[in-house]
Amino acid sequence: MSLKKILKDRLGSRISEKELLMVRRSFEIIGDIVVVDIPDEIYHLKDEIVRAILTKHKHVKTVLRKIGEVRGDYRLAEYEIIYGRETETVCKEHGCKFLLDPTKVYYSVRLSGERERIFRLVNPGERILVMFAGVGPFAITIAKNARPKEVVGVELNPEAVKYFRKNVKLNRVENIVRVYEGDVRKIVPELEGSFDRILMPSPNNAQDFVDVAVTKAKKGSIIHYYTFAGVEEEKELQKRVEKLFSRYIKCKAFFMRRCGSFAPYVHRYVVDLAVG
Question: 226, 237 in Cβ contact below 8 A?
Fold first, then answer.
């Protein structure tokens, strides 16, 4: 049953059709925390929206209302607590557990399918670099579900790094995953050798670090580049990303897909490139 249907059944004539149209159909469940978008125009319905969510998801302990988009170097959104108190949770996906606090670190359940796509592409013995690694979802799901030689994750947000290190231990991948705290522009050039696969899962600003990523690529490397784009840009996006990388290294964009939405008619895309 949808959130709108539950609200309509509960409130009847006390909720107008105009208000119902403003209720967001989807929300994100991170462990036992729900993140929901409630427009100011229907803020007076927040308690009823919480009750409707709890009707469908009885395990939920906290509901966060999103009041600001993801921004800044730490990729954090703004939230207010509208139900519960605790903001730390454990999220499970692909046989892994991730301890995190969505008010302090970036994490998206909606990228779970993309993380699965990536770890299924990894060949045995690969050396992998994850830039903007967050609390470790890409790095750890790869380490746990594929057979890489080594996965290196670099993250700037100290809170995310703290959780990343805990999650490495929680998932028992200490012998595969290495965690580095700091700016990728400073750390990546100092890393030893090159990588078979490089991930750039920061669609807000990955374009600013292409020159850094290519320094650790070699002939045969695969780069997974993430970006936001409007639907009207989709047809030319692969060529545009290929051109961006070709300023620094010979490469070919060979795959692209949507892996989430950001706003109406604006989506998150991944473009896969082969070097050399």
Answer: no
